[in-house]
Write a structure and sequence with these properties.
There is one protein chain. The protein is mainly beta. It has two domains: 125 residues, Immunoglobulin-like (Sandwich), CATH 2.60.40.10; 173 residues, Jelly Rolls. The chain is 2% helix and 46% strand. β20 and β21 form a beta hairpin. The longest helix has 7 residues. It starts with 8 loop residues before the first strand and ends in a 6-residue tail after the last strand. 35% of the residues are buried.
Length: 308
């Protein structure tokens, strides 16, 4: 066996970028991105509406959202948010839905927030075509003073942004309704909707706290010769290092090498690439790196899907 000459050695510092360009590089072994930070983001609704039992074929969407308990004239609220840019596999630590109440009931009431089970549209939803709901997300006692009201929806958002298709649920938003509908005496609350423009700070919003996923790299072997191809695997993992398989993920590739011949490919000796895709259903993707110049070079992999 011919010994490798030191002048031909290529030292690779493998770096997986995530939220910030701060990493713990490893030589010739799995490379893990720096610990990710807890993010807090607010989302405004993409749709909100109310449905009215006493006018079951009418659509109601405006600057106000009514929730009412009244025999034959109940009112329910529906609200939905686009959460697609929370990456699948994010660790959701808290999700809270906020509505500003400016018309309070005469006595305290309990309003239930339930995950909606089917599709609906703000412009077409009515009492007669409203979708069903699943298990309750949370109950909230609504007082007789105006101000912010909130419901915990963490479990729903966890399912919406699950790491795999098998455990995921479609995001159709939530329904909020009085848990004791059909009262002989009317009990009603009025909230601002997303169309309210006088004070934008009082529009509904969803606050989500989460840790985004990260990328890890794995190399094979303990040393590399200049002029040879090196196999590398990029993995996508959640905060607790579980594999993520849901959704298509574009990963970009870069090297600090000063060689004009340095390149990446999906196959050994194949066509040059600057990015690759981890497809839905897969947690990783193999690729190859070639460098004909001896030295110590850094390989970066990163995805804009994890940058917020």
């Amino acid at each position: 066996m011919q010994l490798m000459k030191p002048s031909n050695l290529v030292m690779l510092l493998i770096v997986a970028f995530l939220l910030l360009p701060i990493t713990y590089p490893e030589k010739f072994s799995p490379a893990v991105a720096a610990p990710v930070s807890l993010l807090t983001r607010d989302f405004i609704p993409t749709g909100d509406a109310q449905v009215y039992e006493d006018s079951p074929n009418s659509n109601y969407g405006g600057i106000m959202i009514y929730i009412r308990s009244k025999d034959g004239a109940n009112l329910r609220a529906f609200i939905q948010f686009d959460l697609d840019n929370i990456p699948p596999g994010s660790k959701i630590t808290e999700a809270t839905l906020y509505l500003y109440k400016y018309g309070s009931p005469d006595v305290a009431r309990t309003y239930r927030c339930s995950r909606v089970s089917g599709s609906w549209s703000e412009s077409t939803i009515t009492w007669n075509n409203q979708p069903a709901v699943g298990s309750p997300s949370s109950d909230e006692v609504i007082g007789t003073s105006d101000g912010w009201e909130s419901w915990g929806v963490t479990s729903s958002v966890q399912q919406f942004r699950s790491k795999d298709t098998a455990s995921a649920s479609r995001n159709y938003g939530w329904r909020i309704a009085d848990i004791s509908e059909g009262s002989l005496v009317q009990h009603q609350s009025v909230f601002y909707s997303k169309e309210y423009e006088t004070d934008l700070a009082k529009r509904p919003y969803l606050r989500v706290k989460y840790y985004p996923p990260h990328l890890e790299l794995e190399t094979y072997g303990s040393s590399f010769d200049a002029g040879n191809w090196v196999k590398i695997t990029v993995h996508r993992k959640d905060y607790e290092d579980n594999a993520i398989t849901r959704g298509d993920l574009i990963v970009k590739l870069d090297s600090s090498s000063t060689s004009s011949n340095a390149k990446f490919s999906l196959t050994e000796g194949g066509t040059t690439i600057t990015e690759l895709e981890i497809p839905n259903g897969s947690s990783s993707k193999d690729f190859w790196y070639y460098d004909d110049k001896a030295g110590t070079w850094t390989i970066h992999v990163y995805t804009s899907d994890y940058l917020y």
